Structure of F-box domain-containing protein:
Amino acid sequence: MPETRKPYPFLTLDPLTLNGTGARGATDFSPVSGLLSPPHSAVTKPKSPLSPLSPGFTRILHRARSLTSLGSKRSKRPDAGIAYRLPPELWIKVFMHIPLYLLPAVTLTCRSFNILAQPLLFSTISTHPAASPSLALRGPQTSKYRKRISERLEFFFSPRISPSIVECWISPPAPEEDAPTDDIIDTIFDSLSHLPNLKKLSCRYVRLTPRRLSVLQNLQLTTISLESCFGEIADFAAAPSVPLQEVTFKYPDAALRRGKACLLFLSPTHLEQLHATTTSILPILSQSPPFKKLRSLDIPIECITSDLLIPALLRCPVVDHLSLHTTDCIPRSLMESLPEGVLPLLSSYSGPHYFAAPFLRGRNAKTVDISVPCKPHGLAVSLVRLDRSLMSLSFLLEGVELPAPLLGTIHHSFPTLKKLAVGQPALASAEINAVLQAVPRHYTLSEITLHIQGRDKFNLWIPPDEAAADAVSCFSKCRAALLQTYPSLQVVRLMHGSQGARVMWRRSALSGLFVQVAA
């Protein structure tokens, strides 16, 4: 029989932290892997660090082959080595299609499977426990915390695991100024150079010292996220920018008053996506050279009232997607449209409906996502001001119904619309049929997403299996009305519950029938 191997004593996996959409969260000693998502996933995934061209791949295969041949020789059963006769390269391809929550069982099957499959669990790592603030505060708990982190680092940065790591989260349980973890985090930063395929780094409550910034400048990162990271880094204001493609700043407004040093992370020749939660990003952008590759810009809604908004946008000539994330308070603005020459390529907008038309007027609008619940009449007024070339529309409504006049306005205003998504309200099958029968046909819509109401709308929680069964029943009742209203319909998604779960159907090109597929 194949020789079994005991798991690492400090490695635990919690399947309850995984969801069915491919997005996984990092927990205490639990890895997150983007490599194990099914091939049809719409999420763009990085190239596997265990591909034949990656560092460490040859070493892993050599070790697996040595264990395979050894295990076959030890076996006394004639057929015991049949499973090991496949080359390790093929086993890796098989393991990459196994769901993440089942992969730990594969690693415990035998030594060779452990060598091949275990690195696949560690595409994303968290170097600190997810939530254990008491461990790092005082007394014997501090030494226990340090020992635990040391064990974690020794495993993560081992030659067998390190080539598989693509993303790393450094998130101590408390800010460094409140907990004695400086030497631990210095060790982590010094060890990052041992991760040959590291591309994404997320830091939270970490002090940005010159020593650590020098480490970042020598890494081959493409993405960095800084949340409430503090420290005096003015000496690096004149240093060469780190060639990052995606940058996220999660700071309160007052934290980036001395924001010139943040230019270290904003390379005008490399940056493609910028996300910021503070209006202090505007003076930083307005004083920097033009960003020649910046395509996606995500800024807070409060920026709409700043005098620096237009100067900052002038530094982003190729942005085609603008997102305004909001809080409960949405400021008013007198801006009717962007000045000529500002964001000339803008075609996609996400945010409150008030500002969709001012930003997209006079431009070839393609995608609009109304991310804040709004009233049907106000949404209709904003939509009629958009260009008729819109291809994709999603929105959330206040109230408990989808008015037929609003849907009729959408059909009339956007004759070439391809995708429509209504995230709220949740609708029963009878309500969907009534609305569809009251609006004219739309001949180009190919994808529709609706939020459906379960049989018991007063139940606060319905088991996922029952909710999915309700979605299937709803689709069977609405299919005829959907096809009558949208003759070109190819994809139907019905969301159910409060967690965004969905059931999806795709129309077969051969039979013309709708077939249920993975969402």
Observations:
- The chain has a mean pLDDT of 78.
- The first strand starts at residue 124 and ends at 126.
- The longest helix spans residues 464-485.
